[in-house]
Amino acid sequence: MQIFYGVEKINHPFDKCALALGNFDGFHLGHKELIKLLLKKSVQENLPAVVFTFSPHPAQVLKPQILHEYLCSKEDLALELQKMGTQTLIIQPFTSHFSQLSPLNFIEKFLIQPLHPNHIVIGHDFKFGKARQGSTETLASYSKQYKYTLSILDPIYKQGIRISSSHIRQFIRSGQVDKAHELLGRPYNMMFPIVKGTGRGTPLGFSTLNSAPIDLTTSKYKQDKLTQVIPKTGVYFTQTTLNMKIYPSITNVGFSPTFGDTGLRIETHLLKSIEDQSPPLGQQMKVEFYLYHREEMKFDSKSHLRAQIEKDVKAATNWWKI
User: Fold this and answer.
1) For the stretch 42-71, what's the b/e string if a residue is b when 16 or more beta carbons lie within 10 angstroms of its beta carbon?
2) Which of 255, 242, 262 has its CA nearest to residue 296?
3) How many Å apart are CA 218 and CA 226, to the nearest integer?
4) Higher pLDDT residue, 228 or 149?
5) Is 151 helix (H, G, I), strand (E, B) or coil?
6) Above pLDDT 70, what percent of the chain?
7) What's the pLDDT score for residue 219?
8) Chain-centre distance of CA 112, in angstroms?
9) Picking from 1-15, 103-117, 296-310, which range would have the lowest pLDDT averaged per residue?
10) What phi-psi label fits residue 145: left (phi over 0), alpha (psi between -120 and 50 degrees) or beta?
11) What does the alpha-carbon distance between residue 252 and residue 214 come to, in Å, rounded to a whole number?
12) How far, in Å, CA of 49 to CA of 162, rounded?
């Protein structure tokens, strides 16, 4: 899949394409349905399938006082789109200057001139242009002039719940990662570099891989100047990817109240041994959250803490059937 960071980076003009527009900040099942529609049109009309999105999320530029929590990094988005069969991804830098474009200027300079879409696919609530003046109606009104057809995807529901990024964020914040999984179509994950931990886990018999302390002045985990949703504090059954290998695991999101820590950390214990028992600091790891197991607790002794961890590990081992 080709990835262009802005239409100005396109090294060859498109003479035709099927085009999907959106923020795709969560890439949930609703977004997947939109891409399925794009790919269907691509095959039917023998058109290259192109996805056009923005970075950072427009909300971060238009409302900088409010931190926008992302569910899916652009790297994950690219991987998911590639899996589905998308041929080209355009990640358009969203700046204050870009936000002042009129809807017509956006259509002409960023869609028609560089991409010449034969067909455009959008969600029902897609907005664009200065003050969000552009809408599905705007795109429809210019379709004859610029010779493209338009598909508008209605809201998608699962078990009576409208699939949306806001609903998924609420589930994650409340620990309902299994419900978030259902709406995302994949487990929610966080990626971070491994840092040196406190060293408390190994003497207890349960070594962990650790994130850096999370900055609670913003109550968000910052990654590449974006902010990722933090799951509710507690213990989770997880799956961890390290050096391209996948391990069943158990993860604590919290403050280690038994030891009086103040920084929030993500600490993961692998349920199966790995070849390298001490992965290099700075190596990236991905933790996928499958099920909330219990709340974080304060223990009056290390022995009580060890006993609880043993129960947790046994429960996770049984859950993973290993």
Assistant:
1) beeeebbbbbbbbbbbbebbeeeeeebbbb
2) 255
3) 12
4) 149
5) strand
6) 90
7) 44
8) 29
9) 296-310
10) alpha
11) 13
12) 27
Token code pair at residue 139: 């795109």
Range with lowest mean pLDDT among 14-18, 278-282, 308-312: 278-282
Q: How far apart are CA 313 and CA 251, in angstroms?
A: 10
Tokens at 10, concatenated: 């396109």
Contact 28, 184 (CB under 8 A): yes
For residues 128 and 134, what is the distance between their CA atoms, to the nearest angstrom?
5
Residue with tokens 């652009």: 74
Closest of 317, 63, 54 to residue 206, by C-alpha: 317
What pairs with residue 184 in β-bridges?
Answer: none
Residue showing tokens 């029902």: 124
CA 184 – CA 195 distance, rounded (Å): 29
Instruction: Report the relative pairing of strands 17-21 and 117-123 from DSSP bridges.
Output: parallel
The predicted-structure confidence for 192-230, as pLDDT tens digits, reads as follows 899 886 656 565 567 889 888 776 555 444 444 447 899
Amino acid at 160: G
Residue 310 is predicted with a pLDDT of 92
CATH number for the domain running over 2-154: 3.40.50.620
Mean pLDDT in the chain? Answer: 89
Q: List CB contacts of 181: < 8 A, sequence separation 6 or more.
A: 187, 188, 289, 290
pLDDT for res 300: 76
Only one residue has tokens 């802005």, namely 6
Ordered by start, the domain boundaries in the chain are 2-154, 165-320
So what CATH class is 165-320? Answer: mainly beta
What is d(CA 251, CA 243) in angstroms, rounded to the nearest whole number?
18
> Of 286, 308, 303, nearest to 238 (Cα)?
286
Q: Are 37 and 122 in contact (CB under 8 A)?
A: no
